[in-house]
Amino acid sequence: MVTVRNPDNNGEVHTNENNVCTMCLGSFGIIDETIPRQCINENCRQKFCSKCVSHIRIYNGNNRPFQCMYCLKEYPINCYPEEIDILKQQLWNDKVIKYGIERTKHLLITNCDPKELDFDIDCRRRQLLNLFSTHKRFCKETHANETDIEIENMINQLSNIIIHSKYHASNSIELYKMLYRQAISLPDSDDIGSLYIRLCEQLSVDISNNEFSSIFPNTHKKMNDWMYEQAVGEEFQPKLYHVINAIEQDLVSQWSNPSVTPSTSIGVIGYTNAGKSSLLNRLLGVSSLNDDQAAPIGSMKTTYSALRFNRKEPLIYHHSINRNIQIPVTLVDIQGHDKNRTSDNNMIEAGNYHNEIKR
Length: 359
Ligand SMILES: [Zn+2]
Ligand SMILES: [Zn+2]
Fold this sequence. Notes:
Elements: E1 2-5, E2 36-38, E3 47-49, H1 50-60, E4 82-83, H2 85-98, H3 101-109, H4 114-138, H5 146-167, H6 173-184, H7 194-215, H8 217-232, H9 240-255, E5 263-268, H10 276-283, E6 303-306, E7 316-318, E8 326-333, H11 353-358
Parallel strand pairs: 5-8
Antiparallel strand pairs: 1-5, 2-3, 2-4, 6-8, 7-8
Helix pairs in contact: 1-8, 4-5, 4-7, 5-6, 5-7, 7-8, 8-9
């Protein structure tokens, strides 16, 4: 888990701790891969995104039962963490507010000023255009996919409604209202704006995925390799230093960009006694536990150490252009959680990893 903080926004990373996947720390949402699911074990109830659950399913293949990533409960065959309907509804309601759907609804059902309706349609068209052009900038695929076509359709429909409403008498306003409503709603749904919300959210998810792969290309490739190799080879033995090397390459190329000066925290997450602190000490180049820099092994508290990777570089990385700018890299040894004692108050709550890393 790597977070890069931009000094321009005071180092704040916005997440709602209840609404992130325990495994990948990604936010839950209304798009298929981000839909929240929950462990069926009453004592666990950890939340995971659908994408993480499906990765485990791919890894397991058809023969092995599903196992919770947190409490390690083995599920009956063909049984998986369940979708959380209440949270799904809550997420949808949040999106309705985020995209100002109530305002549009009000315009559609009242005797509104045609100018206000035009303005509302034009705002939606512009928002969609903005998201779409950002998506196109990051996206490496050259041919349009299904979502791209749907988005282009909606943009065209909204443009047409605006053009026609300008040249026709206001007595056809009811027709434009109907066309507007149809353009932004799913065909078989009573929810006004449902298609608009879906497309905007899909674009946002695609943009953040593409953003990650363009800023961390080596790390992204390694993650994909692992996922694929896990699925094909039983004897696949992942090597942690391959990932650390990939992160290092990506960070170094970020730092060589004069316009980027992010400080960076790398969280190490795992069960108690899994070897997190030992890994950290190796990365820090600490050979003896008596060394003051050594991360305490078996500690119940999160520890923070400055990282110099596997090089003889200073603990603080100096910016390549302006030597006065220093970029601290912090390794965060997250307090482990004990798989046998999931209800112990002494342990860090899963899903709070992000807060620990930010501190
Ligand atoms: Zn996830
Ligand atoms: Zn569980």
